[in-house]
Design brief:
By secondary structure, the chain is an alpha/beta fold. It has a single domain, classed as UDP-N-acetylmuramoyl-L-alanine:D-glutamate ligase, CATH 3.40.1190. 40% of the residues lie in helices and 23% in strands. It is built from 13 helices and 14 strands. A hairpin with a 5-residue loop joins β12 and β13. α11 runs antiparallel to α12. The longest helix is centred in the middle third of the chain and has 16 residues.
Length: 330
């Protein structure tokens, strides 16, 4: 389409604090395992104090951000719209984007007053991620942060489902979608997490509206959104609201619908260490693929290999050696 960006994404900007914990940590501290839970700053600080010295890594994160980083690692050109504060975490976040070659609305020298959002990514021995998130200033992410020219100059708009939990975030999604549709930019959406579909289903359906061009979700999210059970019922329901879609199935691979045909995407066997960002990376690699001459089936295989590489290591980023290996295998 000859636009400046492959993807313009909007989403929450969170600095991820990656921490390894044992299962008893969840029981002892009343943390719901396997879900993303929104918490206030005091609760998050309490948990942080309990894991002092165990933080393995800090880096810029958030669902849509991980997708844009993933796409950029393969060589795609992205723009990320978000909101961080003028604290050390905010500066780290803005500089992470710049270093990755991702254009953004953020200026590291002129950030917002407040507290940057943080996500405690607690990784248990079974490699499952449990997130406790204090949104901080990203709670106030709104249509005011949108860059209309970046949306219009992108092949795809990509929106993360986590934004529906905030009234201003929900409005921003609807405004961004309208901007995209008016300029011929394809609209893509990820449900992000089962909790968003479970507790904010009405808001999610507001965003989906009459439909989107490309939807990413896992099988559990698809079932919750549609109020059905099983893959057959889920894919039929999702096909009514998405021209194209990807339903990921964890270790069982994924199902891709290209608008005409279904493609079963086989998993790449791996030893799971940390599932953080696997779905985000799948979306990033897939978006890279379909923007760079791959069929949906080919992009699905690339995305499957990329998400497999992500779960075999700690953190949601791949090195250039990982990228070369994945492209070699595909």
């Amino acid at each position: 389409m000859n636009k400046k960006y492959d993807v313009c994404a909007i989403g929450n900007a969170l600095v991820d604090y990656e921490i390894e914990v044992e299962d008893q940590f969840f029981r002892e501290n009343n943390v719901e395992k396997g879900l993303m839970t929104l918490v206030d700053e005091d609760r998050q600080n309490t948990l942080l104090a309990l894991v002092e010295g165990k933080v393995k890594k800090k880096q810029g994160g958030g669902s849509a951000a991980n997708t844009i980083f993933g796409m950029a690692e393969f060589g795609g050109k992205g723009y990320y719209t978000c909101k961080v504060a003028n604290d050390s975490d905010g500066e780290l976040y803005a500089n992470d984007l710049i270093k990755a070659g991702i254009d953004t609305n953020l200026d590291p020298n002129n950030l917002y007053t407040g507290t940057t959002g943080k996500c405690l990514v607690m990784i248990s021995p079974d490699a499952e991620r449990t997130m406790n998130t204090f949104l901080g200033i990203t709670t106030d992410f709104s249509k005011n942060e949108l860059n209309e020219s970046a949306i219009k100059d992108s092949d795809y708009l990509f929106m993360e489902g986590f934004l529906v939990s905030s009234p201003t975030g929900l409005e921003a999604m609807k405004v961004a979608k309208q901007m995209a549709q008016e300029s011929g930019t394809e609209v893509s959406l990820t449900f992000s997490d089962p909790s968003m579909v479970k507790y904010f289903n009405d808001q999610m359906k507001e965003v989906v509206g009459e439909g989107v061009d490309l939807l990413f979700c896992n099988i559990h999210e698809a079932e919750l959104f549609a109020g059905v059970e099983g893959m057959e019922a889920a894919k039929e329901a999702i096909q009514k609201v998405a021209k194209e879609f990807v339903i990921t199935k964890g270790k069982d691979g994924a199902l891709v619908f290209d608008g005409t045909d279904y493609h079963d995407i086989a998993p790449f066997p791996t030893k799971a260490v940390d599932a953080t960002g696997a779905g985000d990376m799948f979306a990033g690699a897939f978006l890279y693929g379909i923007n760079h001459g791959m069929s949906h089936a080919e992009a699905g295989r690339l995305a499957s290999a990329a998400s497999s590489a992500i779960v075999s290591k700690y953190g949601p980023r791949l090195s250039q050696n990982h990228i070369k290996d994945i492209l070699g295998r595909i």
